[in-house]
Design a protein that fits this description.
about 20% strand, binds tetrahydrodeoxyuridine, 5 strands, alpha+beta, about 130 residues
């Protein structure tokens, strides 16, 4: 990776950590923050928001895609997610599907195993194309 690209990931991680600091996770005690780069240069973020009705909790990625759509849409190109220690976290299965909708197989994810395309984190994904066949 070029130095410039690495700086880009570090900046995105900093945004994810800032979002994590705003999480509402009183039930799990597990705050999460997510940040993504949009193809027009915007950065969108999200944090998890839990609920007294436990199953209704929203993952950080839910807030992120909501902010994406509500701030003009576009395609996600890079994504990172951190836990309460600010360490890189892989998105849960449901959230990989949320990300696939707005980033597709080429969305780059920062993972503990390095930068990987979503196609490797969600192989043989079901997506919008299936509905137009
Ligand atoms: N969580 C996320 O926000 N994103 C993920 O990808 C993994 C899990 C949240 C959900 C819940 O509020 C807490 O982490 C513990 O599972």
């Amino acid at each position: 990776m070029t130095p410039g690209a690495e700086a880009g990931w570090a900046a995105l991680r900093a945004e994810a950590r800032a979002a994590m600091s705003r999480a509402y996770a009183p039930y799990s005690g597990y705050p999460v923050g997510a940040a993504a780069l949009v193809d027009d240069g915007r950065v969108v973020t999200g944090c998890n928001v839990e609920n007294a009705s436990y199953g209704l909790g929203l993952c950080a990625e839910c807030g992120l895609v909501s902010q994406l759509q509500n701030s003009g849409g576009g395609r996600l190109t890079r994504f990172t997610c951190v836990d309460g220690d600010g360490e890189i976290l892989v998105p849960c299965g449901r959230c990989r599907q949320l990300l696939y909708e707005f980033g597709g197989p080429d969305l780059l994810l920062e993972t503990p195993a390095g930068i990987l395309p979503l196609s490797e984190m969600l192989p043989q994904a079901f997506g919008p194309d299936h509905l137009t066949k």
